Amino acid sequence: MVTAGAVGRTCVPMRIPHSFRKVRQGRTVALVRDDLANRLDLLGLGENGSQLEPTAHQGRGPIGAVPDLLLDDSRVLVRRARRGGLIGRLIPDVFCGRCRPFRELAATQRALERAVPTAEVVAAARTTVLGPLYRGTVYTKELGGTSDLQSYLASAAERPDTVSLERRRAVLREVGRVVRAAHDAGLYHGDLQLKNLLVRHNERPQVFLIDLDKARWCRSVPRTLRMMNLLRLKRSAAKAARSGVRITRTDMLRLLKGYAEADSDGRVRTYWHAPFLKGIYRIKWALSDALYRAGRAPQWSSSLLL
Prior knowledge:
- By secondary structure, the chain is α+β, with helices and mostly antiparallel strands.
- It has two domains: 20-141; 147-292, Transferase(Phosphotransferase) domain 1 (Transferase(Phosphotransferase), domain 1, Orthogonal Bundle).
- The protein has ten helices and 13 strands.
- The strands form three sheets. Strands 1, 2, 3, 4, 5, 6, 7 and 8 form an eight-stranded antiparallel sheet that branches.
- A hairpin with a 2-residue loop joins strand 7 and strand 8 (133-141).
- It starts with a helix and ends in a 13-residue tail after the last helix.
- The model is unreliable at 1-10 and 296-306 (pLDDT under 50).
């Protein structure tokens, strides 16, 4: 088992990308991409949602958009950093300590540099509430024509024709390949779940890994951490299936096949069925579900380590 101390020894520190600059406006400090640094009006949009275009995107709260900001006519999505779980019900958007939006920006930029498909963060802002307390906002380039994996699987199940089934299988294999590419690049995703994977279902599917605010960059992601991520994704699929989304055991095996294509010794499959990992997660998830039904806590942390 990998301990928290071992995680710290394998991970490398985050650094702010050189292509961004720091700007200030009142109580807000932001890191903005160089070519957008003169658009200080961008910083106020997180506080005034009425200036934003509505979108179909959903996170833990509504996500608006800024049009006509980028040269390629892509919209910029504006997302307020929010908590989930029990604490999120009490303190949804006020944080203390390290700035989550800045960490997400740094992690995303490094992912793009290492060819991990993700949504580009063009700015991140921190607005002081009181002392060390702050609210955060992330500004992300919209990935047009995408939907999250859970929504895609739900809609694909409504079209059981042969072509749709083949596309579904191709998407699941591509999800496995993208997660494997992220791990091989050194990225450990702290909250790997169906809604943090975006799918663009063209003739050849594209998959994007998003929401990297809990990501850790490692010199080499240990095999046990890789399996922690995959088991977390498997758990997310099980929860979606309970809510009515048709996800079969075969679907998850196809995802694993995509992940394990380069696994010549078969150890990924062995870990996938590892009883000691399953046992730990089964206990944790049983407690989580019991608390959920009791109305005390809708979600536990996605990782035993972070």
